Amino acid sequence: MLVNGAGGVTGTLIVQLAVHLGAEVIAGPRSAARVAAAGAAHVLDRRSPDWPGQVRELTVGRGADLAVNAAPGGAASALAAVRNRGRLATITSDPPDAERGIEVKQVYVAPDGPRLARLAELLGAGTIGVTVSAPFPLEHAARALSQLQRGTNGQAVVLHPGLLPLPGTSATSSAGTTSTTPCTGSGLPRRAHPGSGHQRAGREDARPGGRPVVFTGATGRPWARA
């Protein structure tokens, strides 16, 4: 299975889920170390103009059976790495025309309570993990979106209604610094993804109340409410 754009928040989660389900993952990220830690078997340099050819070399000339594209503008390149009559799914609203019998699907986020509950179980068990930048109070939503659009180096951006400063953070962190803390099912820093090197930190609940909203991806759309 190929994951294009694996270095972002969504792409890394896709790698983790695919590995959990038993797939051998070929990843095309900008951050090789992070994606390798997520479990990818092969990590390519997506900046190479012939990276789809590298996928074919790894698959003895056939191409990937399945590809998932999470890189804006990258769906057409990912298609070139898929075998004849394979499958391509993209989340970037730019699906290419189907060719060589390949099934192409555009995937949109839809409310699904049971699936979110299962993801929460995997998050709590440490099977998947998300790294977040310093949380933004809700009143700084515009700054949070601006940071997301500039790029976050694989970190999710979190808005929290009425969030008080957490241990180890300062007032300046809400203005857009990028000190990182792991995010668990509660949506607040508590436990790291395995292998990340972070230690237990933060609190299990916030004061005053309110559930955080996690923004990921180049579109800046809400990915989940923790």
The tally of strands reads 12
User: Helix and strand succession?
Assistant: EHEHEHEHEEHEEHEEEE
Average pLDDT score: 76
Q: Count of helical segments?
A: 6
**What is the domain tally?**
2
Strand order of the largest sheet: 3-2-1-4-5-6
- Strand pairing plus helix content: what structural class? alpha/beta
Question: Portion of residues in helices?
Answer: 10-25%
Strand content: 15-25%
Oligomer: single chain
Largest sheet: 6 strands, parallel
Question: Which stretches are poorly predicted, pLDDT < 50 over at least 5 residues?
Answer: 170-209, 215-226
- What is the rounded Rg? 18 Å
Q: Please state the overall shape, judged from the principal axes of the Cα atoms.
A: globular
End-to-end distance = 28 Å
Write a compact overview of the structure shown:
By secondary structure, the chain is α/β, with parallel strands linked by helices.
